[in-house]
Amino acid sequence: MSSPPVARTPRLPLLAPASPSAAAPAVPPGVRVPRLLLRATATASAVLGLAQTVLAGSFLNGHYEALRAHELTAMALGGLLLAQLPVAALVRRGGGAGGARGPWWPLGATALLLAAAGAQMGTGYERAVGVHVTLGVLLVSGLLFGLVGAWRPAPASAPAPSSTPDAESSADPVGESGSGSGSGIGSGSGSGDGGPGRLPRPTGAGADAVEVAP
Fold first, then answer.
1. 154, 166 in Cβ contact below 8 A?
2. Alpha-carbon span 33 to 37, nearest angstrom
3. pTM to 2 decimals?
């Protein structure tokens, strides 16, 4: 009795399993700490800036004892912005995603706000009320914009695609086993014993005992 024709099934390529840690890369402490310090100083600066508007309005309403508190708050704000300057430099140095350089705007904005705070104190001591009020509004607006920027989440770096060379080298492409000299099913190359529309002739031990049906 003749054995049924033997046909090989092509193997599908092996897919490397996705790494669970690649989806959410961990943020190193060297990047996280400067950003936390920047958020803390930016929040405290914004609170002091809003307190200055309240104290200035209280002074204009006739509460002259608020002028001393307004002066002390201005000094505290200047000292806080001065302390925020090295923090912004640390964020610029290595506060980016993947250990790269961080954004430049915290350093530039802090330096600009520090200069504005110094000019604000100078115009206050000189009793230049018009310039003092205008510059105060711009200063508080800059502090609020810095607060929003500090609390904005940092852009995450795209994880590098993980590839396993062993799995790729050991996998056969789909349909590769069917190419060659008539070794695939329905191969149209015309070479070998199969020919168009014929099943391939099995090879190996006992191949002579197997008859290939047309």
1. no
2. 6
3. 0.60
